[in-house]
Design a protein that fits this description.
This protein is of the alpha+beta class. It has one domain (2-151): Beta Barrel (OB fold (Dihydrolipoamide Acetyltransferase, E2P)). The chain has helices at 2-22, 29-34, 58-61, and strands spanning 37-44, 49-56, 67-75, 85-89, 107-112, 125-133, 143-151. The strands form 2 sheets. A 5-stranded mixed beta barrel has the order 3-4-5-7-6. A two-stranded antiparallel ribbon has the order 1-2. A hairpin with a 4-residue loop joins β1 and β2. The radius of gyration is 18 Å and the shape is globular.
Length: 152
């Protein structure tokens, strides 16, 4: 009976794990997965105060170093000009986490491939690149997308 139960769980659950990872290439799926984060207050020696440290769901950890696609809005770091380094937010600037309407898990900094500059737009864009996760440096963003390219 235990063997049957194991086989049943494996056959039913295993494909679902892969389906969850595959959802990273779909519209909201990437942000839904990246938002699987909780925060734990810890004392930080450097700042001399409690800070919120991210605790990632194991599914999020599996994406480190993998290519992902996310849709979002450009939050410019150097004005509304062409740039090769910008913040991508799940939400428009009026709702981004700097405005207190979302958490830090809803944004990523993007470094474009070959430092190609892209024009600022208020419209939603889709970016593909390699995900890097930062859980140690509270002065930096949680997510970084390296070698980012804009796709249609």
């Amino acid at each position: 009976m235990k063997y049957f139960l194991f086989v049943f769980i494996f056959l039913v659950g295993y494909p679902n794990i892969h389906a969850q990872v595959d959802v990273m290439k779909k519209d909201e799926g990437a942000w839904n997965t990246l938002s699987m984060v909780t925060f734990q207050r810890e004392f930080d020696q450097t700042f001399g105060m409690d800070v919120e440290k991210p605790v990632l769901n194991p599914l999020v950890r599996t994406l480190e170093g993998k290519e992902i696609e996310v849709e979002g809005y450009i939050i410019p770091l150097t004005g509304k000009v062409e740039q090769s380094h910008f913040m991508l937010s799940r939400f428009p600037q009026s709702m981004c986490f700097f405005c207190g309407k979302a958490g830090p898990e809803s944004a990523a900094q993007v470094f474009t491939k070959n430092s190609k500059k892209i024009a600022f737009t208020d419209k939603k864009i889709r970016v593909k690149g390699i995900l890097r996760i930062n859980v140690t440096d509270v002065t930096n963003l949680l997510y970084t997308i390296e070698d980012g390219v804009i796709i249609d």
